[in-house]
Amino acid sequence: MPESVRAPMPMRVLGRSGIRVSDLCLGTMTFGTEWGFGTDESTSRKIYETYREAGGNYVDTANNYTDGASEEILGRVVASERDSVVLSTKYTFPTVKDDPNTGGNHRKSLRRSVETSLRRLGTDYIDVLWVHAWDQCTPVDETLRALDDMVRSGKVLAIGVSNTPAWVVSRSVAIAELRGWSSYCTMQVEYSLAARTPERELLPMADASGLAVTAWSPLGRGILARTPSTDGFTKLSAPVQRILRTTREVGDELGVSSARVALAWVLRQGLMLSIGARTLDQINDNLGALDVELDESQLSRLDEASNIRLGYPHEFLHERRALFTPQALGTRDSDAAARAGG
Which residue windows are transmembrane per the record (predicted)? Predict the structure, then answer.
């Protein structure tokens, strides 16, 4: 579909929050030049405007991105339409080298981060606040209780979680529900054709818990934007080379870039995408993933090229799935059941 007649960007409800967001989220880790690879404010504004013109309404940053410049730039570019945008930011990672309490998931870190983010973003509320990562030392009930206070104060509307084991997220959701606290409505995971391990635990858990999932780095940290003719291709691992060959083949069939194919595949898995860009060409190419229609044969080839082993206990249970049908359970005796086990 030509970009000039592109259909409206698909929208969905963000888990149980009721907030409507676009399938493509604009990630702004590249807003700011402090890390040496980002964009200046003028280019960042153009990237944002291109995204908004395409129908996107969901923008994501973090308190540590480009040492805070990302939040400051984003605050200025959304200022004229703040209430029309779903604005999310994150906390967890330390922001001051010699002050350990500027990081972590505890209440002190949370309060300082939220107040700083509100000031940088030039707003009095954050639509979605993410726990950026599990800090492995703050009890989850302490984190949840502090987050609930932020929601009750009106400074945060909804909460999400990223880079955290499935069992920690699942336990957190159960605790929040039992105690009547604000619960996670969404989750971010690294997921792409080159990183499918969330299929083992994280994605099934999210589905069972009603969490909307956004894939960060859906281009495999940039690797999936490469092609077999790219310099350094032969130095990549054999599995990645296989994925890149397949995405290039499918891209040639459709007349689109390998990057669009990789992004379209993630969308077909039912996830939202966090797309970032350093140039207008990149943001336009990423937005073009919405126009890519993969047929069943192409999906199958991409699945096969990137397939991973699910491991134990998933493979064990899959091999014995037929033993647990109503028919099997009603006919076999206990000895047969014992023999079927491992």
Answer: none
> What per-residue confidence (pLDDT) applies to 334?
52
225 touches 219 (CB < 8 A): yes
The pLDDT tens digits for 116-168 are 999 999 999 999 999 999 999 999 999 999 999 999 999 999 999 999 999 99
Q: Which of 138, 198, 141, 130 is nearest to 174 (CA)?
A: 141
Domain 8-306 has CATH 3.20.20.370: no
User: What's this model's pTM, rounded to 2 decimal places?
Assistant: 0.92
- Told to judge if 65 belongs to the known catalytic residues of this protein, a careful annotator would answer yes
| DSSP summary character for residue 31 | B
Separation between Cα atoms, residue 273 and residue 283, nearest integer Å: 13
Distances (CA, A) of 319 to 109, 120, 200, 308, 324: 46, 53, 16, 16, 11
Question: Any idea what DSSP says for residue 316?
Answer: H
CATH 3.20.20.100 in the chain, residues?
8-306
DSSP-assigned states of every residue in 177-224: HHHT---EEEEEEE-BTTB-GGGTTHHHHHHHHT-EEEEESTTTTTGG
The pLDDT, as a whole number, for residue 338 is 53
Indicate the length of the chain as a whole number: 342
Question: What is the Cα–Cα distance from 292 to 272, expressed in whole angstroms?
Answer: 15
The per-residue pLDDT for 1 is: 45
3-state secondary structure 227-255: CCCCCCHHHCCHHHHHHHHHHHHHHHHHC
Weakly modelled stretches of the chain, pLDDT under 50 = 1-2
Whether the CB-CB separation of 48 and 57 falls below 8 Å is answered with no
Asked if residue 164 lies in contact with residue 137, where contact means CB atoms within 8 angstroms, the answer is no
Residue 131 DSSP symbol: E
